[in-house]
Amino acid sequence: MTLLVLGASGFVGNAFVRQKLPGEIYTSRRVVSNKYVSFNPLIDDLRSISGIANISHALLLFGEREPDHCAIDPVGTRKVNVEAPCRIIAQCTELGITPIFVSTEMVFDGDIGMYAESDVPMPILEYGRQKLATEQYLLSKNASGLVLRLPKTIGLHRDDRSLFTNWLREIAQHPKLLQCAIDQFFSLQLVDEVPEVVRALVRKSASGILHLGDGQRHSRFDLLSKLCSKLQKFGFYVPKLEEISIRDLRLPEPRPMDVSMDTTNLRALVGIEPERVDCFISMVAKEYAGS
Question: N or C: lower Cβ tally within 10 Å for the chain?
Fold first, then answer.
């Protein structure tokens, strides 16, 4: 079984490129190096990709990932998050390729948390509604297709603009006060673990809907507090933290408060244990201290 990664120049896609396997194909709308094949999912045909006949699964990573952009431009972002992936899913079905659509925890309203795959999605964000529309299309058109709902995905490198590295960038400016929501909760996924999980699911010929991540419920405020405590042990300056509500933020749409997800089904299927968050915080702090 061989994987095609569509949208491989993004945050998650780059993890596949870093852990490249023979036979896999990685595409980008804008080819930034010879690692990628040029492919625009809005207009190009999968048949134009050299080696497509050897592909068994296509991972759809491309799309607009910023919820605020979707709220501000629902028509434009729907072309990228719904129309284009549905078009590619239809082509996959014609070619006998299993589509794997990467969705989001934001398909849930955030009222209860620790959502299972059997829970009914009720998105309150335009971004979540777009992702859910594509989920529903895939599941109705391709019985072998797979939907992977990703939680908040984090990395180790200071320039990757993920949760902890964004905090480190703010702390490096030596602010006296750093505001953080006390009432927002989510699960975490280390980006470099995603390729191993996806490839294991391909080998298992998994289908349907699966939740990725560590299967834990994390408080945004607690995570920042732990990071600051770890930085203090290395002798770094940390600001005072101010508790606020996620509802205090002036955003185009109010964020769901608890989108943590249960990953019991994933663990049972592939048996891969995620990195513990305390270990990850230590790794991030050490990376910061050594740079």
Answer: C
Beta partners for residue 218, in sequence order: 186
Using CA atoms, how far apart are residues 147 and 155, in angstroms rounded to an integer? 22
Task: Give the separation between CA 246 and CA 195, rounded to whole angstroms.
Answer: 32
> Six-digit token pair at 42?
């809005």
Helix (H, G, I), strand (E, B) or coil at 73: coil
What is the pTM assigned to this prediction?
Answer: 0.95
**What is the average pLDDT across 132-160?**
94
Nearest to 247 by CA among 257, 259, 237: 257
- Where are the domains positioned within the chain? 3-153+188-217+259-274
Q: How far apart are CA 112 and CA 115, in angstroms?
A: 7
Four-residue CA torsion sign, 267, 215, 164, 132? positive
Buried b (16+ CB within 10 A) or exposed e, 81-115: bbebbbbbbbbbbeeebbbbbbbbbbbbbbeebbb
Whether domain 3-153+188-217+259-274 has CATH 3.90.79.10: the reply is no
222-279, pLDDT tens digit by residue?
999 999 999 998 889 999 999 999 999 999 999 999 999 999 999 999 988 887 888 8
pLDDT band at 289 (very low <50, low <70, confident <90, very high): confident
